[in-house]
Amino acid sequence: MDSKTNKLKCAHLLEGIAVSPGIAISKVFALRGEAVKIDPTIIRETEIAGEVEKFVQAVEKAKSELRTLQSRVEHRIGKENARIFDVHQLLLEDSVIIDETIGGIREEKKSADFAFYDIMQKYQSSLSESRQELFRSRISDLKDVKRRVIRHIQGDRSAHLNRFEGSAVIVAVDLTPSDTVKLDRHKVMGFATDFGGRTSHVAIMARSMGVPAVVGLRNLSKAVSDGVRIIVDGNQGKVLIDPDEKTLGHYRKLQEKYLDVGRKLAGIRDLPSITLDGKEIELSANLEFADEAESARTHGARGVGLYRTDYVYLSRSELPTEDEQVGEYTKMATKIAPDSVIIRTMDLGGDKNPKSIVIPPEENPFLGWRAIRICLDRQDVFDVQLRAILRASVGGNVKILFPMISGLDELRQCKQALDRAKQELCKQKTPFDEDIECGVMIEVPSAALMADRIAEEVDFLSIGTNDLVQYVLAVDRGNERIAHLYQHLHPAVLRLIKQVINAGHQAGVWVGMCGEMASDPLAALILLGLDLDEFSVTPMAVPEIKKIIRSVDYQQAVRIANKALNFETASEVERFMNKVVRQKFKELSS
Ligand code: PEP
Ligand code: MG
Q1: Any residues with CB less than 8 A from the CB of 244 and at least 6 apart, and which?
Q2: Pick from 191, 238, 467: which is nearest to 350 by CA?
Q3: Where is 145: in which H helix or E strand?
Q4: Is residue 438 annotated as part of the catalytic site, yes or no?
Q5: The one catalytic residue among 201, 299, 488, 490
Q6: What pLDDT, in 10s, does the model give residues 22-65?
Q7: How far apart are CA 290 and CA 144, in angstroms?
Q8: Atom of ligand 1 minimally distant from the CA of 308
Q9: Residues 6+ positions from 318 with CB-CB distance below 8 Å
Q10: Predicted model pTM
Q11: pLDDT tens for residues 11-27?
Protein backbone atom coordinates (compact mmCIF):
# COMPACT_ATOMS: atom_id res chain seq x y z
CA MET A 1 0.00 0.00 0.00
CA ASP A 2 1.06 3.60 -0.43
CA SER A 3 2.22 5.52 2.57
CA LYS A 4 -0.21 8.41 2.97
CA THR A 5 2.45 11.02 3.37
CA ASN A 6 5.19 10.42 0.86
CA LYS A 7 4.00 7.82 -1.60
CA LEU A 8 6.61 5.33 -0.59
CA LYS A 9 5.77 1.77 -1.47
CA CYS A 10 5.79 -1.34 0.64
CA ALA A 11 3.63 -4.41 1.06
CA HIS A 12 2.36 -3.21 4.44
CA LEU A 13 2.63 -0.06 6.45
CA LEU A 14 1.55 -0.36 10.07
CA GLU A 15 1.36 2.38 12.64
CA GLY A 16 1.94 1.78 16.32
CA ILE A 17 3.48 3.46 19.33
CA ALA A 18 7.07 4.68 18.98
CA VAL A 19 8.83 3.56 22.16
CA SER A 20 12.50 3.55 21.32
CA PRO A 21 14.01 5.95 18.78
CA GLY A 22 16.10 5.22 15.73
CA ILE A 23 15.57 3.44 12.45
CA ALA A 24 16.25 -0.25 11.87
CA ILE A 25 16.43 -1.75 8.40
CA SER A 26 16.79 -5.49 8.65
CA LYS A 27 15.00 -8.80 8.21
CA VAL A 28 12.23 -10.26 10.33
CA PHE A 29 12.70 -12.92 12.93
CA ALA A 30 9.14 -13.76 13.93
CA LEU A 31 8.54 -15.40 17.24
CA ARG A 32 5.03 -16.44 16.29
CA GLY A 33 4.50 -19.24 13.90
CA GLU A 34 7.95 -20.72 14.39
CA ALA A 35 8.08 -24.18 12.88
CA VAL A 36 8.20 -27.05 15.33
CA LYS A 37 11.32 -29.11 14.83
CA ILE A 38 11.09 -32.74 15.88
CA ASP A 39 13.78 -35.32 15.95
CA PRO A 40 11.96 -38.65 15.56
CA THR A 41 13.78 -40.28 18.46
CA ILE A 42 13.23 -43.82 19.77
CA ILE A 43 14.02 -44.00 23.45
CA ARG A 44 15.34 -46.76 25.74
CA GLU A 45 13.15 -48.63 28.20
CA THR A 46 14.81 -46.80 31.09
CA GLU A 47 13.87 -43.43 29.63
CA ILE A 48 10.14 -44.08 29.37
CA ALA A 49 9.13 -42.86 32.83
CA GLY A 50 11.18 -39.68 32.40
CA GLU A 51 9.60 -38.91 29.00
CA VAL A 52 6.07 -39.49 30.32
CA GLU A 53 6.81 -37.12 33.21
CA LYS A 54 8.26 -34.56 30.80
CA PHE A 55 5.07 -34.70 28.73
CA VAL A 56 2.74 -34.40 31.75
CA GLN A 57 4.75 -31.43 33.07
CA ALA A 58 4.74 -29.76 29.66
CA VAL A 59 0.95 -30.03 29.46
CA GLU A 60 0.64 -28.49 32.94
CA LYS A 61 2.99 -25.65 32.03
CA ALA A 62 1.08 -25.03 28.81
CA LYS A 63 -2.19 -24.90 30.74
CA SER A 64 -0.87 -22.42 33.24
CA GLU A 65 0.67 -20.31 30.46
CA LEU A 66 -2.69 -20.30 28.67
CA ARG A 67 -4.50 -19.19 31.83
CA THR A 68 -2.12 -16.22 32.19
CA LEU A 69 -2.42 -15.38 28.51
CA GLN A 70 -6.17 -15.67 28.64
CA SER A 71 -6.50 -13.28 31.53
CA ARG A 72 -4.15 -10.80 29.83
CA VAL A 73 -6.07 -10.93 26.56
CA GLU A 74 -9.38 -10.71 28.40
CA HIS A 75 -8.11 -7.73 30.29
CA ARG A 76 -6.88 -6.00 27.15
CA ILE A 77 -9.27 -6.83 24.36
CA GLY A 78 -12.24 -8.41 26.04
CA LYS A 79 -13.75 -11.71 27.06
CA GLU A 80 -14.98 -12.59 23.59
CA ASN A 81 -11.49 -12.49 22.09
CA ALA A 82 -10.12 -14.55 24.95
CA ARG A 83 -12.61 -17.40 24.32
CA ILE A 84 -10.21 -18.96 21.88
CA PHE A 85 -8.12 -20.06 24.83
CA ASP A 86 -11.03 -22.10 26.19
CA VAL A 87 -10.71 -24.28 23.09
CA HIS A 88 -6.98 -24.65 23.68
CA GLN A 89 -7.53 -25.58 27.33
CA LEU A 90 -10.07 -28.20 26.26
CA LEU A 91 -7.60 -29.71 23.84
CA LEU A 92 -5.05 -29.93 26.62
CA GLU A 93 -7.57 -31.71 28.82
CA ASP A 94 -8.65 -34.14 26.11
CA SER A 95 -8.02 -37.55 27.64
CA VAL A 96 -7.80 -39.24 24.22
CA ILE A 97 -4.92 -36.98 23.15
CA ILE A 98 -3.18 -37.40 26.51
CA ASP A 99 -3.64 -41.19 26.65
CA GLU A 100 -2.62 -41.74 23.04
CA THR A 101 0.55 -39.68 23.54
CA ILE A 102 1.47 -41.59 26.70
CA GLY A 103 0.72 -44.80 24.79
CA GLY A 104 3.09 -43.69 22.04
CA ILE A 105 5.84 -43.14 24.61
CA ARG A 106 5.26 -46.38 26.52
CA GLU A 107 4.44 -48.77 23.71
CA GLU A 108 6.19 -47.35 20.66
CA LYS A 109 9.08 -45.91 22.68
CA LYS A 110 8.82 -42.52 21.06
CA SER A 111 10.32 -39.49 22.78
CA ALA A 112 7.69 -37.22 24.36
CA ASP A 113 7.79 -34.53 21.67
CA PHE A 114 7.81 -37.11 18.88
CA ALA A 115 4.81 -38.99 20.34
CA PHE A 116 2.77 -35.84 20.91
CA TYR A 117 3.65 -34.46 17.48
CA ASP A 118 2.48 -37.68 15.80
CA ILE A 119 -0.86 -37.69 17.58
CA MET A 120 -1.49 -34.03 16.82
CA GLN A 121 -0.56 -34.54 13.16
CA LYS A 122 -3.06 -37.38 12.96
CA TYR A 123 -5.89 -35.16 14.23
CA GLN A 124 -4.73 -32.28 12.09
CA SER A 125 -4.98 -34.43 8.94
CA SER A 126 -8.43 -35.70 9.78
CA LEU A 127 -9.65 -32.15 10.43
CA SER A 128 -8.23 -30.91 7.16
CA GLU A 129 -10.08 -33.66 5.30
CA SER A 130 -13.35 -32.69 6.91
CA ARG A 131 -16.01 -31.16 4.69
CA GLN A 132 -17.20 -28.95 7.46
CA GLU A 133 -15.67 -25.50 7.60
CA LEU A 134 -16.13 -25.44 11.37
CA PHE A 135 -13.82 -28.41 11.81
CA ARG A 136 -11.26 -27.12 9.35
CA SER A 137 -11.16 -23.80 11.15
CA ARG A 138 -10.00 -25.62 14.29
CA ILE A 139 -6.70 -26.62 12.68
CA SER A 140 -4.96 -23.45 13.76
CA ASP A 141 -5.97 -24.15 17.39
CA LEU A 142 -4.55 -27.62 17.14
CA LYS A 143 -1.30 -26.26 15.68
CA ASP A 144 -1.04 -23.65 18.39
CA VAL A 145 -1.49 -26.22 21.16
CA LYS A 146 0.98 -28.53 19.45
CA ARG A 147 3.62 -25.81 19.31
CA ARG A 148 3.01 -24.73 22.86
CA VAL A 149 3.34 -28.19 24.40
CA ILE A 150 6.34 -29.16 22.27
CA ARG A 151 8.07 -25.95 23.24
CA HIS A 152 7.65 -26.89 26.88
CA ILE A 153 8.86 -30.44 26.27
CA GLN A 154 11.91 -29.20 24.43
CA GLY A 155 12.66 -26.39 26.84
CA ASP A 156 12.41 -22.68 27.08
CA ARG A 157 10.97 -20.70 24.19
CA SER A 158 13.69 -18.15 24.66
CA ALA A 159 16.06 -20.82 23.41
CA HIS A 160 14.44 -20.23 20.01
CA LEU A 161 15.26 -16.60 20.19
CA ASN A 162 18.81 -17.07 19.10
CA ARG A 163 18.05 -19.37 16.22
CA PHE A 164 18.43 -16.68 13.60
CA GLU A 165 21.49 -16.09 11.51
CA GLY A 166 23.10 -12.67 11.46
CA SER A 167 20.97 -9.85 12.74
CA ALA A 168 17.23 -9.29 12.72
CA VAL A 169 14.27 -7.32 13.98
CA ILE A 170 12.35 -9.39 16.51
CA VAL A 171 8.65 -9.48 15.72
CA ALA A 172 6.28 -10.96 18.29
CA VAL A 173 2.82 -10.70 19.75
CA ASP A 174 4.49 -9.52 22.93
CA LEU A 175 7.82 -10.15 24.61
CA THR A 176 8.11 -10.98 28.25
CA PRO A 177 11.24 -10.47 30.34
CA SER A 178 11.84 -14.20 30.37
CA ASP A 179 11.84 -14.17 26.55
CA THR A 180 14.31 -11.36 26.17
CA VAL A 181 16.64 -12.33 28.95
CA LYS A 182 18.38 -14.95 26.85
CA LEU A 183 18.53 -12.94 23.65
CA ASP A 184 21.86 -12.43 22.02
CA ARG A 185 21.51 -8.70 22.29
CA HIS A 186 24.18 -8.03 19.66
CA LYS A 187 22.05 -9.67 16.99
CA VAL A 188 18.89 -7.68 17.64
CA MET A 189 18.42 -4.63 15.41
CA GLY A 190 15.00 -3.66 16.73
CA PHE A 191 11.67 -4.81 18.07
CA ALA A 192 8.14 -4.65 16.72
CA THR A 193 5.26 -6.14 18.71
CA ASP A 194 1.48 -6.41 18.57
CA PHE A 195 0.98 -5.47 22.22
CA GLY A 196 2.65 -3.01 24.57
CA GLY A 197 2.98 0.60 25.66
CA ARG A 198 5.78 3.08 26.39
CA THR A 199 6.80 1.51 29.64
CA SER A 200 6.12 -2.12 28.89
CA HIS A 201 9.04 -4.44 29.25
CA VAL A 202 9.98 -4.62 25.57
CA ALA A 203 10.07 -0.81 25.36
CA ILE A 204 12.41 -0.48 28.33
CA MET A 205 14.58 -3.28 27.02
CA ALA A 206 14.84 -1.72 23.55
CA ARG A 207 15.86 1.63 24.96
CA SER A 208 18.40 0.06 27.23
CA MET A 209 19.86 -1.84 24.26
CA GLY A 210 19.77 1.32 22.14
CA VAL A 211 17.70 -0.21 19.33
CA PRO A 212 14.50 1.15 17.77
CA ALA A 213 11.13 -0.30 18.75
CA VAL A 214 7.50 0.16 17.85
CA VAL A 215 4.78 -1.56 19.89
CA GLY A 216 0.99 -1.76 19.81
CA LEU A 217 0.99 -2.80 16.14
CA ARG A 218 -1.94 -5.17 16.76
CA ASN A 219 -1.75 -7.48 13.73
CA LEU A 220 1.89 -7.24 12.74
CA SER A 221 2.94 -10.70 13.88
CA LYS A 222 0.30 -12.28 11.65
CA ALA A 223 1.38 -10.24 8.66
CA VAL A 224 5.06 -11.22 8.54
CA SER A 225 7.20 -14.25 8.10
CA ASP A 226 10.87 -14.90 8.82
CA GLY A 227 13.43 -13.30 6.57
CA VAL A 228 11.16 -10.62 5.08
CA ARG A 229 12.72 -7.16 4.89
CA ILE A 230 11.38 -4.75 7.50
CA ILE A 231 11.89 -1.13 8.48
CA VAL A 232 11.20 -0.13 12.08
CA ASP A 233 10.89 3.61 12.45
CA GLY A 234 11.12 4.15 16.20
CA ASN A 235 10.88 7.91 15.77
CA GLN A 236 7.53 7.97 14.01
CA GLY A 237 6.05 4.70 15.27
CA LYS A 238 5.87 3.11 11.82
CA VAL A 239 6.73 -0.34 10.56
CA LEU A 240 7.12 -1.05 6.86
CA ILE A 241 7.16 -4.59 5.59
CA ASP A 242 8.81 -5.51 2.32
CA PRO A 243 9.60 -1.94 1.20
CA ASP A 244 10.62 -1.12 -2.37
CA GLU A 245 14.04 0.34 -3.25
CA LYS A 246 12.85 3.92 -3.19
CA THR A 247 11.43 3.50 0.32
CA LEU A 248 14.63 1.83 1.46
CA GLY A 249 16.68 4.71 0.11
CA HIS A 250 14.47 7.22 1.87
CA TYR A 251 14.81 5.43 5.21
CA ARG A 252 18.56 4.96 4.83
CA LYS A 253 18.85 8.74 4.55
CA LEU A 254 16.65 9.22 7.65
CA GLN A 255 18.74 6.65 9.50
CA GLU A 256 21.95 8.50 8.63
CA LYS A 257 20.44 11.81 9.76
CA TYR A 258 19.42 10.26 13.07
CA LEU A 259 22.86 8.78 13.64
CA ASP A 260 24.39 12.14 12.84
CA VAL A 261 22.41 13.84 15.62
CA GLY A 262 23.66 11.08 17.98
CA ARG A 263 27.27 11.71 16.93
CA LYS A 264 26.91 15.44 17.58
CA LEU A 265 25.42 14.81 21.02
CA ALA A 266 28.21 12.37 21.86
CA GLY A 267 30.54 15.38 21.88
CA ILE A 268 29.20 16.40 25.28
CA ARG A 269 29.70 12.95 26.80
CA ASP A 270 32.49 13.89 29.15
CA LEU A 271 31.15 17.30 30.14
CA PRO A 272 29.43 17.70 33.52
CA SER A 273 25.65 17.89 33.76
CA ILE A 274 25.41 21.37 35.10
CA THR A 275 23.03 24.25 34.35
CA LEU A 276 24.28 27.55 32.86
CA ASP A 277 24.17 29.11 36.33
CA GLY A 278 26.14 26.30 37.93
CA LYS A 279 23.56 23.95 39.50
CA GLU A 280 24.91 20.42 39.35
CA ILE A 281 22.50 17.64 38.54
CA GLU A 282 23.22 13.97 39.09
CA LEU A 283 22.73 12.23 35.73
CA SER A 284 22.92 8.47 35.98
CA ALA A 285 21.82 5.46 33.97
CA ASN A 286 19.25 2.71 34.34
CA LEU A 287 20.75 -0.71 33.69
CA GLU A 288 19.51 -4.27 33.69
CA PHE A 289 22.66 -6.34 33.22
CA ALA A 290 26.05 -6.20 34.91
CA ASP A 291 27.75 -6.80 31.56
CA GLU A 292 26.30 -3.53 30.28
CA ALA A 293 27.94 -1.45 33.00
CA GLU A 294 30.25 0.24 30.49
CA SER A 295 27.33 1.67 28.59
CA ALA A 296 26.61 4.03 31.49
CA ARG A 297 30.00 5.69 31.07
CA THR A 298 30.17 5.48 27.28
CA HIS A 299 26.93 7.44 27.11
CA GLY A 300 28.20 10.04 29.58
CA ALA A 301 26.32 9.07 32.75
CA ARG A 302 27.75 9.24 36.25
CA GLY A 303 26.80 6.13 38.07
CA VAL A 304 23.79 3.85 37.92
CA GLY A 305 20.59 5.23 39.40
CA LEU A 306 18.66 2.01 38.92
CA TYR A 307 20.10 -1.45 38.58
CA ARG A 308 17.13 -3.77 38.03
CA THR A 309 18.22 -7.04 39.58
CA ASP A 310 15.14 -8.85 38.28
CA TYR A 311 17.10 -10.36 35.41
CA VAL A 312 19.44 -12.15 37.80
CA TYR A 313 16.34 -14.19 38.75
CA LEU A 314 14.79 -14.37 35.29
CA SER A 315 17.88 -15.75 33.63
CA ARG A 316 18.01 -18.90 35.78
CA SER A 317 15.63 -21.71 36.41
CA GLU A 318 16.77 -22.02 40.04
CA LEU A 319 16.96 -19.18 42.53
CA PRO A 320 20.31 -17.39 42.22
CA THR A 321 22.57 -18.32 45.11
CA GLU A 322 24.02 -15.70 47.42
CA ASP A 323 27.47 -16.13 45.85
CA GLU A 324 26.09 -15.84 42.31
CA GLN A 325 24.37 -12.62 43.27
CA VAL A 326 27.48 -11.26 44.97
CA GLY A 327 29.32 -11.97 41.71
CA GLU A 328 26.81 -10.03 39.58
CA TYR A 329 26.46 -7.07 41.92
CA THR A 330 30.19 -6.80 42.53
CA LYS A 331 30.82 -6.81 38.79
CA MET A 332 28.48 -3.85 38.41
CA ALA A 333 29.78 -2.03 41.51
CA THR A 334 33.46 -2.32 40.61
CA LYS A 335 32.94 -1.24 37.02
CA ILE A 336 30.99 1.84 38.08
CA ALA A 337 33.14 2.82 41.11
CA PRO A 338 33.88 5.40 42.35
CA ASP A 339 30.43 6.46 41.13
CA SER A 340 27.50 4.86 42.88
CA VAL A 341 25.25 1.99 41.89
CA ILE A 342 21.73 1.92 43.26
CA ILE A 343 20.78 -1.73 43.45
CA ARG A 344 17.05 -2.27 43.48
CA THR A 345 15.91 -5.39 45.29
CA MET A 346 14.03 -7.73 43.00
CA ASP A 347 10.83 -6.49 41.41
CA LEU A 348 9.34 -9.77 40.22
CA GLY A 349 5.67 -10.40 39.55
CA GLY A 350 3.60 -8.17 37.25
CA ASP A 351 4.92 -9.29 33.88
CA LYS A 352 8.11 -10.78 35.32
CA ASN A 353 7.60 -14.42 36.15
CA PRO A 354 10.73 -16.27 37.14
CA LYS A 355 10.81 -20.06 36.99
CA SER A 356 12.16 -20.28 40.52
CA ILE A 357 9.27 -18.58 42.33
CA VAL A 358 5.77 -19.80 41.61
CA ILE A 359 3.56 -16.79 41.06
CA PRO A 360 0.05 -18.13 40.55
CA PRO A 361 -1.97 -16.50 37.74
CA GLU A 362 -3.73 -13.41 39.04
CA GLU A 363 -6.60 -11.26 37.81
CA ASN A 364 -4.52 -8.09 38.12
CA PRO A 365 -0.83 -8.97 38.27
CA PHE A 366 0.29 -5.33 38.46
CA LEU A 367 -1.89 -4.90 41.54
CA GLY A 368 -1.00 -8.29 42.85
CA TRP A 369 1.79 -10.29 44.40
CA ARG A 370 4.67 -8.18 43.17
CA ALA A 371 8.08 -6.88 44.15
CA ILE A 372 8.37 -6.08 47.85
CA ARG A 373 5.18 -8.02 48.57
CA ILE A 374 6.87 -11.18 47.37
CA CYS A 375 10.06 -10.32 49.27
CA LEU A 376 8.24 -9.79 52.54
CA ASP A 377 6.36 -13.08 52.14
CA ARG A 378 9.47 -14.93 51.04
CA GLN A 379 11.95 -13.75 53.65
CA ASP A 380 14.20 -16.68 52.71
CA VAL A 381 14.64 -15.23 49.20
CA PHE A 382 14.82 -11.63 50.41
CA ASP A 383 17.46 -12.32 53.07
CA VAL A 384 19.74 -13.93 50.51
CA GLN A 385 19.50 -10.92 48.22
CA LEU A 386 20.06 -8.42 51.00
CA ARG A 387 23.15 -10.27 52.21
CA ALA A 388 24.45 -10.41 48.64
CA ILE A 389 23.96 -6.67 48.11
CA LEU A 390 25.66 -5.91 51.42
CA ARG A 391 28.59 -8.13 50.56
CA ALA A 392 28.94 -6.46 47.15
CA SER A 393 29.04 -3.06 48.83
CA VAL A 394 32.71 -3.54 49.70
CA GLY A 395 33.53 -3.65 45.98
CA GLY A 396 32.29 -0.16 45.18
CA ASN A 397 29.82 2.53 46.08
CA VAL A 398 26.51 0.72 46.55
CA LYS A 399 23.10 1.91 47.69
CA ILE A 400 19.93 -0.15 48.21
CA LEU A 401 16.52 0.68 46.77
CA PHE A 402 13.21 -0.96 47.73
CA PRO A 403 10.50 -1.10 45.01
CA MET A 404 6.68 -0.92 45.29
CA ILE A 405 6.65 0.32 48.86
CA SER A 406 3.11 1.45 49.66
CA GLY A 407 3.63 2.70 53.20
CA LEU A 408 5.71 2.81 56.33
CA ASP A 409 4.84 -0.69 57.51
CA GLU A 410 6.49 -2.24 54.50
CA LEU A 411 9.46 0.09 54.68
CA ARG A 412 10.04 -0.77 58.34
CA GLN A 413 9.84 -4.48 57.59
CA CYS A 414 12.42 -4.00 54.85
CA LYS A 415 14.71 -2.18 57.21
CA GLN A 416 14.33 -4.92 59.80
CA ALA A 417 15.26 -7.48 57.17
CA LEU A 418 18.27 -5.36 56.25
CA ASP A 419 19.34 -5.16 59.90
CA ARG A 420 18.96 -8.92 60.20
CA ALA A 421 21.17 -9.42 57.16
CA LYS A 422 23.76 -7.02 58.58
CA GLN A 423 23.81 -8.87 61.90
CA GLU A 424 24.31 -12.22 60.21
CA LEU A 425 27.23 -10.85 58.22
CA CYS A 426 28.70 -9.32 61.38
CA LYS A 427 28.47 -12.68 63.10
CA GLN A 428 30.25 -14.33 60.18
CA LYS A 429 32.81 -11.50 60.21
CA THR A 430 31.98 -10.83 56.56
CA PRO A 431 32.76 -7.24 55.60
CA PHE A 432 30.17 -4.81 54.17
CA ASP A 433 29.57 -1.08 54.04
CA GLU A 434 27.97 -0.37 57.40
CA ASP A 435 26.78 3.06 56.28
CA ILE A 436 25.15 1.79 53.13
CA GLU A 437 22.45 4.24 52.04
CA CYS A 438 18.98 2.97 51.59
CA GLY A 439 16.11 4.47 49.65
CA VAL A 440 12.56 3.87 48.55
CA MET A 441 10.98 3.95 45.13
CA ILE A 442 8.02 6.25 45.07
CA GLU A 443 5.82 4.48 42.57
CA VAL A 444 2.63 3.77 44.48
CA PRO A 445 0.32 6.77 45.06
CA SER A 446 0.01 6.03 48.78
CA ALA A 447 3.80 6.25 49.11
CA ALA A 448 3.81 9.51 47.17
CA LEU A 449 1.23 10.94 49.56
CA MET A 450 3.24 9.69 52.55
CA ALA A 451 6.59 10.79 51.09
CA ASP A 452 7.20 13.31 53.91
CA ARG A 453 7.08 10.55 56.54
CA ILE A 454 8.87 7.97 54.43
CA ALA A 455 11.67 10.43 53.72
CA GLU A 456 12.34 10.76 57.45
CA GLU A 457 13.33 7.09 57.59
CA VAL A 458 15.50 6.75 54.46
CA ASP A 459 18.50 8.35 52.78
CA PHE A 460 16.86 9.11 49.43
CA LEU A 461 13.72 8.77 47.34
CA SER A 462 13.60 7.67 43.71
CA ILE A 463 10.40 8.35 41.79
CA GLY A 464 9.32 5.42 39.62
CA THR A 465 7.00 7.09 37.16
CA ASN A 466 6.46 3.97 35.05
CA ASP A 467 4.29 2.57 37.78
CA LEU A 468 3.30 5.80 39.48
CA VAL A 469 1.65 7.10 36.30
CA GLN A 470 -0.27 3.87 35.74
CA TYR A 471 -1.55 3.85 39.30
CA VAL A 472 -2.34 7.58 39.52
CA LEU A 473 -4.18 7.67 36.20
CA ALA A 474 -5.56 4.10 36.40
CA VAL A 475 -4.03 3.31 33.01
CA ASP A 476 -2.34 -0.06 32.46
CA ARG A 477 1.21 0.76 31.36
CA GLY A 478 1.29 -2.13 28.87
CA ASN A 479 -2.07 -1.70 27.18
CA GLU A 480 -1.74 -0.27 23.67
CA ARG A 481 -5.46 0.50 23.44
CA ILE A 482 -5.28 3.10 26.18
CA ALA A 483 -1.67 4.17 25.61
CA HIS A 484 -2.86 7.67 24.69
CA LEU A 485 -4.20 8.02 28.25
CA TYR A 486 -0.84 7.13 29.78
CA GLN A 487 0.37 10.71 30.16
CA HIS A 488 3.27 11.51 32.42
CA LEU A 489 2.75 15.20 31.70
CA HIS A 490 -0.74 15.01 33.22
CA PRO A 491 -1.13 17.86 35.73
CA ALA A 492 -2.10 15.36 38.45
CA VAL A 493 1.20 13.53 37.94
CA LEU A 494 3.18 16.77 37.90
CA ARG A 495 1.54 17.95 41.12
CA LEU A 496 2.32 14.68 42.83
CA ILE A 497 5.94 14.74 41.68
CA LYS A 498 6.32 18.28 42.98
CA GLN A 499 4.87 17.18 46.31
CA VAL A 500 7.29 14.24 46.56
CA ILE A 501 10.35 16.37 45.72
CA ASN A 502 9.37 19.00 48.28
CA ALA A 503 8.65 16.34 50.92
CA GLY A 504 12.06 14.77 50.37
CA HIS A 505 13.85 18.10 50.56
CA GLN A 506 12.03 19.13 53.71
CA ALA A 507 13.21 15.92 55.35
CA GLY A 508 16.75 16.64 54.15
CA VAL A 509 17.08 13.80 51.61
CA TRP A 510 17.79 13.93 47.91
CA VAL A 511 15.12 12.96 45.38
CA GLY A 512 15.77 11.25 42.07
CA MET A 513 13.67 9.80 39.29
CA CYS A 514 14.36 6.46 37.67
CA GLY A 515 11.10 6.12 35.72
CA GLU A 516 11.15 6.66 31.96
CA MET A 517 9.75 10.16 32.37
CA ALA A 518 13.24 11.32 33.34
CA SER A 519 14.42 10.32 29.84
CA ASP A 520 11.77 12.43 28.11
CA PRO A 521 13.19 15.70 26.76
CA LEU A 522 9.75 17.30 27.08
CA ALA A 523 9.65 16.53 30.80
CA ALA A 524 13.30 17.31 31.61
CA LEU A 525 12.98 21.08 32.00
CA ILE A 526 9.93 20.71 34.22
CA LEU A 527 11.68 18.19 36.46
CA LEU A 528 14.75 20.39 36.63
CA GLY A 529 12.59 23.36 37.60
CA LEU A 530 10.86 21.27 40.26
CA ASP A 531 14.32 20.77 41.79
CA LEU A 532 14.78 17.09 41.05
CA ASP A 533 18.29 16.18 42.24
CA GLU A 534 18.97 13.12 40.14
CA PHE A 535 17.84 11.97 36.69
CA SER A 536 18.40 8.27 36.14
CA VAL A 537 17.74 7.64 32.49
CA THR A 538 18.05 5.01 29.85
CA PRO A 539 21.70 5.16 28.59
CA MET A 540 20.80 6.31 25.09
CA ALA A 541 18.91 9.31 26.53
CA VAL A 542 21.87 10.55 28.60
CA PRO A 543 23.39 12.88 25.97
CA GLU A 544 20.06 14.51 25.12
CA ILE A 545 19.10 15.10 28.76
CA LYS A 546 22.61 16.38 29.52
CA LYS A 547 22.36 18.77 26.61
CA ILE A 548 19.06 20.13 27.97
CA ILE A 549 20.43 20.55 31.50
CA ARG A 550 23.52 22.33 30.20
CA SER A 551 21.48 24.77 28.10
CA VAL A 552 19.38 26.51 30.73
CA ASP A 553 19.59 28.58 33.89
CA TYR A 554 18.03 26.83 36.82
CA GLN A 555 15.77 29.85 37.46
CA GLN A 556 14.59 29.70 33.88
CA ALA A 557 13.66 26.04 34.38
CA VAL A 558 11.77 27.01 37.56
CA ARG A 559 9.72 29.51 35.55
CA ILE A 560 9.01 26.88 32.87
CA ALA A 561 7.95 24.34 35.52
CA ASN A 562 5.67 26.86 37.22
CA LYS A 563 4.01 27.64 33.94
CA ALA A 564 3.64 23.96 33.06
CA LEU A 565 2.03 23.25 36.40
CA ASN A 566 -0.62 25.85 35.76
CA PHE A 567 -2.10 24.08 32.75
CA GLU A 568 -5.21 22.00 33.19
CA THR A 569 -4.62 19.12 30.82
CA ALA A 570 -1.75 16.95 29.67
CA SER A 571 -2.16 18.06 26.07
CA GLU A 572 -1.79 21.71 27.08
CA VAL A 573 1.40 20.90 28.98
CA GLU A 574 2.69 18.88 26.04
CA ARG A 575 1.94 21.64 23.53
CA PHE A 576 3.68 24.18 25.73
CA MET A 577 6.75 22.00 26.30
CA ASN A 578 6.98 21.12 22.62
CA LYS A 579 7.15 24.81 21.83
CA VAL A 580 9.77 25.47 24.51
CA VAL A 581 11.97 22.57 23.41
CA ARG A 582 11.59 23.40 19.71
CA GLN A 583 12.65 26.97 20.31
CA LYS A 584 15.55 26.16 22.57
CA PHE A 585 16.91 23.03 20.96
CA LYS A 586 16.44 23.16 17.24
CA GLU A 587 18.86 20.31 16.64
CA LEU A 588 17.02 17.95 19.00
CA SER A 589 13.65 18.39 17.39
CA SER A 590 14.85 18.28 13.77
C1 PEP B 1 9.15 2.54 37.52
O2 PEP B 1 8.11 1.96 37.86
O3 PEP B 1 9.20 3.73 37.19
C4 PEP B 1 10.42 1.79 37.47
C5 PEP B 1 11.55 2.40 37.22
O6 PEP B 1 10.38 0.45 37.68
P7 PEP B 1 9.97 -0.67 36.60
O8 PEP B 1 9.85 0.01 35.26
O9 PEP B 1 11.05 -1.67 36.66
O10 PEP B 1 8.66 -1.13 37.14
MG1 MG C 1 8.18 0.08 38.87
Answers
A1: 8, 9, 10
A2: 467
A3: helix 139-154
A4: no
A5: 201
A6: 999 999 988 754 456 677 889 999 999 999 999 999 999 888 87
A7: 36
A8: 9
A9: 355, 356
A10: 0.74
A11: 688 999 999 999 999 99
